[in-house]
Amino acid sequence: MANMNNLTTLIKRLEAATSRLEDMVPTVSDPSAATNGISSLPESGLTAPGADGQGVPGTPQQQPSAPLPPAIDDFDALINGDVKTFVNMSEEIGGLVAEQSAAVLRAFAAERKFLIVTTKAKKPDIQSPVYMEVLKDLQSTLGVVNDIREANRASPLFKHLTTVSEGINVLIWVANESKPVDTINEMLSSAQFWGNRVIQEYKE
Predict the structure, then answer these.
(1) Distance CA 53, CA 67 (A)
(2) Which whole number is the average pLDDT over 184-192?
(3) pLDDT of residue 150
(4) Cβ(85)–Cβ(20) below 8 Å
(5) 96 contacts 42 by C-beta, under 8 angstroms
(6) Burial of 100 (0-12, 13-18, 19+ CB in 10 A)
(7) Do 89 and 97 touch, CB atoms closer than 8 A?
(8) What is the DSSP string of 79-97?
(9) Is residue 166 within 8 Å of 191, Cβ to Cβ?
(10) Contact between residue 116 and residue 24 where contact means Cβ atoms under 8 Å apart
């Protein structure tokens, strides 16, 4: 029950994050430069080893990295807050729920990398190989979340797996050129539908 409520809160918070991220303006003209800029970033919002300026003995000390845009800081707060709470609660349940939640965390990490690229590069044509390459990790991790649901239709946890599978698709708002918030609202509605069925099933 608490896990469902946490998932709903997580998805709703994406609406606020979307509004800020839509306002970000690219500052670098070469998409490849942006990709290189995130190659050493951690998969989550945590600080990478060595980022505190403590270099490895015998190697040149790295310069402090530039501050992240406020919208990325907000996204990191979402990952380190609601997302990790959801993952931790899922791990307590274990099994398929924990497995799927791990894929959810990877999907958020992939989205973070994509968002950092958008702050450093001009937008390529959406049909171009460059655009598809940048989206590849996100699409792959979203596919894993859904595959876990599809492979376990006979599971008593199918409704739970479906709730998460439907809800995680909010991350694809980045590929919506017109009204990303509409995409989030649509996916939220579907996730809430299945979430309500889970709540009803376990209602005392």
Answers:
(1) 14
(2) 89
(3) 97
(4) no
(5) no
(6) buried
(7) no
(8) IIIIIHHHHHHHHHH-HHH
(9) yes
(10) no
Which range is most confident: 42-51, 162-171, 175-184? 162-171
Return the C-alpha torsion angle 86, 81, 76, 11, nearest 10: 50
Q: Kindly state the tokens that stand for 196.
A: 């309500």
Q: Residues 95, 157: contact at Cβ < 8 Å?
A: yes
Q: How many residues does the chain have?
A: 204
pLDDT of 82 higher than 50: yes
Structure tokens that stand for 39 in this block: 């190659």
Q: Is residue 75 within 8 Å of residue 115, measured between CB atoms?
A: yes
Distances (CA, A) of 3 to 10, 84, 93, 126: 10, 12, 10, 36
Question: 110: which residues sit within 8 A by CB, 6+ positions away?
Answer: 137, 138, 140, 141
Amino acid letter, residue 38: I
Which residue shows structure tokens 């989030």?
Answer: 184
Tokens (6 digits) for 3: 């896990």
The predicted model scores a pTM of 0.67
**Residue 75 to residues 8, 38, 67, 82, 148, Cα–Cα distance (Å):** 16, 15, 14, 11, 25
Residue-wise pLDDT tens digits, 64-73? 677 888 889 9
Q: Buried (b) or exposed (e) across 105-118, using 16+ Cβ within 10 A?
A: bbbbbbbbbbbbbb
Whole-number Å distance between alpha carbons of 59 and 142:
38
Residue 63 phi/psi, 5-degree rounding, is -75, 150
Mean pLDDT throughout 132-143? 91
